[in-house]
Amino acid sequence: MESTDFCYMTERTGKHMKDILYADVVIDISHEALDKVFQYRVPFSLREKVIPGVRVCVPFGRGNRETEGYVIAIGRETDYDPDKIKEISYVVPGSLSVESQLIQVADFLKKQYGSSMIAALRTVMPVKNKVRHKEEMTISLGISLEQAQQLLTSWEKKHYCARVRFLKRLLEKGTILKEEAVKECKLSMKDLRKLEHEGIIHMSTKVLYRNPFQDFRVMEQSVCLNEEQQYIAEDFQKRYLRGEQNTYLLYGVTGSGKTEVYLALIQTILRDGKQAIVLIPEISLTYQTVRRFYERFGDQIAVIHSRMSMGEKSDACERIRQGDANVVIGARSALFAPTKNLGLIIIDEEHDNAYKSDTSPKYHARETAIFRAGLAGASVVLGSATPSVESFSRAQNGEYILWTMKKRAGDASLPDVLIEDLREEFQKGNRSVFSEVLYAKMEERLKKKEQIMLFLNRRGFAGFVSCRNCGIVVKCPHCDVSLTYHRNGRLRCHYCGYETAFSRQCPVCKSPHVAAFGLGTEKVEAALHQEFPEAKIIRMDMDTTRRKNAHQQMLKAFSAGDADILLGTQMIVKGHDYPNVTLVGILAADLSLHGQDFRSGERTFQLLCQAAGRAGRGQKKGEVVIQTYSPDHYAITTAAEHSYDLFYEQEYAYRSLMGYPPCAHLLVILIQCADESQAVLTVMRIQKMVQQSQQDELDTVQILNPGEAVISKLKDMYRKVLYLKHKDAERLLDLKDRLEPVLEKHPLFAGVQIQFDFDPMNFY
Ligand code: ADP
Ligand code: ZN
Ligand code: ZN
Questions:
Q1: Is 340 exposed, middle or buried (0-12, 13-18, 19+ CB in 10 A)?
Q2: SS3 string of 441-485?
Q3: Are 66 and 59 in contact (CB under 8 A)?
Q4: Model-level pTM?
């Protein structure tokens, strides 16, 4: 390997030729113009004040017009002739606008998660108002009634027909809309402007925002908080009034009434003129959730989600910026809503994977929320029935304040859970999808007209397709993943969308014994039809919910009692409340257990608890049957006992033994390249750089198995990965900061895509 000199990377506090700072300034902060960056010199007197986010005044363009802009980055290097660079004139006083805050958040994303500043800014900046808002223009009289009468008489004499028509109507109605004046009275816009200029009329415009909640109604407050809820609401209020700014972890079992608590907390800060952001995993952002908030806060709420049109999104942002909307509800990206007066950020289901972005910057909404709240002087509330190991450990060591709710609200109690060993079923000769116990319980519920939810952590008709003769698994030619069999007789890649016809003949040994294995929702549905021909079934998975609103419609139908059984993947386990569901069946609990991943125990526990939590949320007691091949795994036994504490104890012990987050930190470097040998070389080069850079250090950053990613090829790009581990997050971030500029600029890395991920959600 070549002895490339990366020594400049090791220079951490090195001296610089000239101690001059340059600021990158954007003049137009709209989403579209963010990459138009101008460099300015930072005068010595302003060094302390010029940081990312501040608004500055700069001489701009040929005429050096005094123009305001935002500083997005500071550096010591410049790409231009230093003598020609102009200087920042001054920092705009009191420039802590929402934009400033969001730029600081972008700077945080860049530093914490590793990405370009432009990518970070695009993440936090709301879309520009390209869409024209619908406007309504109203016309009223600008003169007294007497004067208007005189005018009318004189116009009549002059036979000004259109004007007469117009003025008569205006006198009659008080105000009229512009459309009416133009279309019915036949006045032109020019005429109207003239009348306005003469002071005869006033014209005023009002922006009409789209109202997405037409069918919702504000309700009188109906529930009375129970003791646990009341304690939390009061504790928050007390601390809020004292001016405390905290991160709280609300750990409340499923059905304990966390939403009521959120509503109470929001009310506290609204009374004080502040705004709140509520994050919800996209998948549970349904009309049910939104309705609960709407019923309490009415038009004060704004919803932001990915299926909105640009116009709707921009309307929502405008209402938030104007302070017309004070409660923002949305998925991950709603975290960047332009709230000027932020008082509280709530993250519901804080353990959910959806809070981690899967595109660069790969930020986690939890950490980012805490940072944003810090800037705004706001508090953060994280809520979950199964808190992430990260959050719970921070609550344990006092970093977060822990609130606990152990009881279900109202009269409901937690369901009884049975574990069924599928190995025993197999030995008994039961080849069906359902264990005897689950089958019997389903039969009973169907008779009693109670509802059933069946949960399968898989989609498609079956899993992979393989040859029974030679054992080869049929894979996607562009990705290193097995293809999935669908009932329409086609094989599909869920990563790149590649499709091909299923063939019984093995592509390698030509034997005719290629078949599909595993269990999918389609196969279970077929089995249900066979075993319970009378039952009405709704199947929900990625394939049946592709259409807009399909997800909501299906849940609504199930909630209305249109079906006896709701069968589905992950998407059915979150946040829905069906009082008539008394049985939940988890068909194969281990499916999520065998991912080669340090979080798979945690993920399985969470899924089981959430799924089990759907049962018995009404007056009737619920039951849960967990079918599994690993009945002794702690993730399964602790979930069956509803014991987060026991689970946490074992999981934490495992993480600390293995040195995984939160006990240590991981920095992932993902290398993607169309040329495999180039990718391999890159991994070796980076590994060497890391080793060289810490030659003189004792407590070195550990480099784990450099090599192939779990998915070694994706969309024809070879994927290699390097894991760096250290107890101390700062050490890894510092290393990243030193690697980043070299990886970006050094010609050896041209043509290779390099991404960072800090404390990943899964292995690459
Ligand atoms: P979680 O989010 O903790 O799973 P929810 O907020 O969905 O729980 O509440 C579960 C159910 O309990 C809901 O139907 C809710 O209306 C009801 N509930 C919540 N608080 C109370 C209360 N204080 N009294 C009676 N019912 C309540
Ligand atoms: Zn074969
Ligand atoms: Zn593919």
A1: middle
A2: HHHHHHHHCCEEEEECCCCCCCCCEEECCCCCECECCCCCCECEE
A3: yes
A4: 0.79
Ligand 1 contact via 760 beta carbon (within 6 Å): no
3-state SS, residue 376: helix
Which two three-digit tokens encode residue 638?
């602790």
Is residue 671 within 8 Å of 720, Cβ to Cβ? yes
For 462-483, what is the mean pLDDT?
A: 74
Q: Contact, 576 vs 284, CB < 8 A? A: yes
E strand map for 4-79: 22-26, 37-41, 55-60, 65-75
- Residue 538: count of CB within 10 angstroms of its CB: 20
Q: Give residue 406 CA to ligand 1 midpoint distance, Å.
A: 13
Q: Ligand 1: distance of its center to the CA of 513 in Å?
A: 53
Q: Which of 321-330, 518-527, 685-694, 737-746 has the lowest mean pLDDT?
A: 518-527
CB of 603 closer than 8 Å to CB of 592: yes
What does residue 225 show for φ and ψ, rounded to 5 degrees? -60, 140
- Does the beta carbon of 531 sit less than 6 angstroms from any atom of ligand 1? no
Q: How far is CA 49 from CA 52, 54, 55, 100, in A?
A: 10, 8, 10, 13
The one-letter code for the residue type at 449 is K
Q: What's the 3-state SS for 608-629? A: HHHHHCCCCCCCCCCEEEEEEC
Instruction: Please state which of the ranges 322-326, 400-404, 540-544, 679-683 shows the lowest mean pLDDT.
Output: 540-544
**CA–CA separation, 145 and 155 (whole Å):** 15
CA distance 299 to 216: 10
The whole-angstrom separation of Cα 604 and Cα 573 is 12
Ligand showing the shortest atom-to-Cα distance for residue 476: 3
Q: Give nearest CA residue, ligand 1 atom 16.
A: 257
Contacts of 158 (CB under 8 A, 6+ apart): none
Greater pLDDT, 173 or 445: 445
- Do 58 and 67 form a contact (C-beta atoms < 8 A)? yes
- If we measure between CA atoms, which residue out of 223, 349, 254, 348 comes closest to residue 617? 254
Q: Which one, of 109, 123, 121, lies nearest residue 363 by Cα?
A: 109
Token pair of 121, please? 């800014």
How many Å apart are CA 364 and CA 347, to the nearest integer?
Answer: 12
| 3-class DSSP state of 387 | coil
Edge to edge, what strands does the sheet with 490-492 contain? 484-486, 490-492, 499-501
Which residues, in sequence order, are bridge partners of residue 37?
26
Q: Which range among 137-151, 449-463, 595-609 shows the weakest confidence by mean pLDDT?
A: 449-463
Residue 225 Cα: closest atom of ligand 1: 23
- Confidence label for 634 from pLDDT (cuts 50, 70 and 90): very high
Of 495 and 182, more confident: 182
Distance CA 636, CA 75 (A): 52
Ligand at minimal distance from the CA of 484 is 3
Rounded to a whole number, what is the distance in angstroms from the first to the last CA of the chain? 26
